[in-house]
Specification:
With about 650 residues, this protein is mainly beta. It has eight helices and 32 strands.
């Protein structure tokens, strides 16, 4: 035992410090046994404390791969719930990694187990096939804009007064207007068509009321005497129909034009006309509208309140063509080709499956939501109206070598064409209703009751050959399939109503989403509304009273009088572009289609005058007492339901 005197402790301590430092440099450990307060002893076997492994060391079971789920970053534009990863952990995780071992048929691993090597009896099982790597989350910033609503109201009106008064000769009859009989025809047309009292919507609530009007719309049962109609409902509306009969092709309107109109299409028509030609008819009224809408589409839609989808086509032709033709010597060549009127409608549904590009064929695992506060509305409202009053009163004597007198020959055209392109989503969630309403309402009204008298010498008269056409086409690209609802969609819509859009795996695995990487979701807190409304009306009053004769010097000349050959056309087309869609609704699905076509030919006079009396043969100017001083308001024919006076300025009249 080593004893240190207290007086020498400082020196020993100082020297000992250097001694210990020197020993550590030499990697010696016997200095740890130095204890000045206790005698020296043999510490025995020293166990190093810097080793955690035991002896002998055993290699654990080989694991070829480790299951690791990387943390999902939260990117701007993606909600935390949008990261939906499937993780399957097959075993407990190992706290450290093993180096890969080069196993082969000629290599057998050995295990250290003491002073000798032992060879395992059996090699380890072959490694299982590698698990597919989970898709990487998007690494760029996402932005999904909210679509805007669109609303268009287009009202086109053409009003023309062409009531000519040509007085030269003996005129023993008075002036008779045609406003009253034309109003009768117009009222009868209103009784023939589908009653759909639509007004411009004033707010979101008005669209649901409009859908209920579509649902309650019916074809009229009580028709005026002499009227005929054809009505089809539901799936029977699909196809092409002309006056109630199924047809294969659309009629060729150019071939149906009046003969005089086709003759006028020739550039040299004037050189081929007769010596004396008087035209008091040949008016043309045309309404044309075309709507192409591709605003909002998605292969899957959900509606919490319900779905209303209605299509209505109503077409009406009403006319009166009663002519009275007189000639003292009976030398007349009269062409009374009857008026040709037709209603043609085409309604088609075409499949258009949604296609996805760039995906791997698996179900999406991320979604991005755009939320719209309120309703998403797409409204196209077109109202076209043509009114022409061409009630001519003429009495004249033809002189000279050649005459061309165009008293009618008026035209009025309204035309509009729309093309609207919008957005496409993968899933649309609607807290309210889906409202899809399409309507085409077409009406033609014509009054062509003429009174014609020709003096000695005769001539040719064309008093009929009018054309009235209603042409409507509705094409819907993309079929709708109503699939009801289920627990998954009900739960999703309840969460959406609370402001949270969460898609469970059962919805993400929908085959409609296969191949998508990120699901584009539109959440509408109101209704999804689509309305296409076209209303077209043509009204023509062409009740003419004509007296013509040749002077003594022109007896035997070639004379032609055209009082008919009028054309009234309404043509409309609605095309909705979308994709084949499955609609899940918690409130039911209501869908219907209605096609109604009707016509009425009046075969009796409608409050018409007695017509002209026989003419005198003298070529003198005769004015009946008070004829030029009477109130013009008794003669003028105004537009229906309008009582304003006719402006004196002709351009103001045309542009009114």
């Amino acid at each position: 035992m080593l004893l240190i005197h207290a007086a020498d402790e400082a020196i020993w301590h100082f020297i000992g410090i250097f001694h210990i430092t020197d020993e550590i440099v030499r990697l010696r450990i016997n200095y740890e046994a130095l204890d000045p307060n206790r005698p020296d002893f043999d510490p025995g076997h020293i166990i190093p404390k810097d080793l955690v492994t035991t002896y002998p060391f055993e290699i654990p079971e080989f694991v070829p791969g480790l299951d690791y789920t990387p943390p999902v970053p939260t990117l701007e534009g993606l909600t935390p719930e949008a990261a939906y990863l499937f993780v399957d952990v097959a075993r407990d995780p190992i706290p450290f990694s093993l180096p890969s071992l080069p196993f082969s048929d000629s290599y057998t691993p050995t295990v250290w187990n003491g002073p000798t090597f032992q060879t395992p009896v059996e090699p380890p099982d072959p490694p299982p096939p590698p698990r597919p790597e989970p898709p990487e989350p998007p690494t760029h910033e996402w932005e999904l804009p909210v679509p805007d609503s669109v609303a268009l109201y287009n009202f086109q009106q053409s009003v023309l007064y062409d009531g000519d008064l040509v007085l030269r000769g003996d005129i023993p009859f008075g002036v008779d207007g045609a406003n009253a009989p034309l109003q009768v025809l117009y009222d009868q047309a209103g009784q023939l068509g589908v009653s759909l009292p639509l007004e411009l919507p004033s707010g979101d609530d008005a669209f649901l009321a409009m859908a209920q009007l579509f649902r309650d719309a019916e074809a009229p049962d009580d028709l005026p005497e002499g009227a005929v109609s054809w009505t089809r409902l539901g799936q029977d509306v699909l196809g092409k129909y002309q006056d109630g009969l199924a047809v294969d092709e659309r009629p060729d309107l150019d071939a149906l034009l009046p003969a005089y109109s086709q003759e006028r299409q020739d550039e040299d028509w004037r050189e081929n006309t007769t010596q004396h030609e008087v035209v008091v008819g040949h008016n043309m009224l045309v309404n044309e509208a075309n709507i192409t809408s591709a605003w909002i589409a998605a292969p899957v839609l959900t509606a919490a309140q319900g779905v209303y989808s209605y299509t209505i086509i109503s077409q009406v032709n009403v006319w009166s063509d009663l002519d009275r033709i007189l000639s003292p010597d009976g030398a007349l060549n009269v062409d009374q080709t009857p008026t040709n009127a037709l209603n043609f409608a085409s309604y088609s549904l075409t499949a258009n499956p949604a296609t996805h590009e760039g995906g791997d064929g698996d179900a999406p695992q991320f979604w991005l939501t755009a939320t719209l506060e309120g309703s998403l509305v797409s409204v196209n409202w077109i109202d076209q109206y043509n009114f022409i009053s061409d009630d001519d009163i003429t009495s004249f004597t033809l002189n000279g070598d050649q005459t061309l007198l165009l008293i009618g020959d008026n035209g009025a055209v309204n035309h509009v064409s729309l093309a609207e392109l919008g957005s496409q989503f993968d899933l649309i969630i609607i807290d309210g209703y889906i409202l899809n309403l399409n309507a085409i309402l077409q009406t033609n009204v014509m009054l062509d009751n003429d009174s014609i008298s020709m003096g000695a010498g005769g001539g040719r008269i064309s008093s009929g050959d009018n054309l009235l056409v209603n042409d409507a086409t509705i094409n819907q690209i993309g079929r709708e399939n109503f699939a009801g609802s289920n627990d998954a969609y009900d739960a999703m819509m309840r969460l959406a109503a609370d402001g949270r859009v969460i898609l469970p795996a059962s919805i993400l695995n929908d085959p409609a989403f296969e191949g998508l990487d990120v699901l584009r979701v539109l959440h509408i807190k109101g209704d999804l509304v689509s309305v296409n409304m076209i209303r077209q009306t043509n009204v023509l009053g062409d009740a003419d009273q004509i007296e013509t004769y040749l002077s003594d010097a022109q007896l035997g000349g070639d004379v032609r009088v055209v009082t008919g050959s009028n054309t009234l056309v309404n043509t409309a087309q609605i095309t909705e572009f979308g994709v084949d869609a499955t609609i899940h609704s918690g409130g039911g699905y209501y869908s219907d289609a209605l096609l109604h076509q009707a016509e009425l030919v009046t075969d009796r006079p409608l409050q018409m005058g007695d017509g002209p009396a026989p003419l005198a043969s003298e070529a003198v100017l005769f004015l009946a007492d008070g004829m030029l001083t009477q109130d013009d308001g008794d003669r003028d024919v105004g537009p229906l339901h309008h009582d304003g006076a006719v402006p004196a300025d002709i351009m103001e009249t045309v542009l009114a």
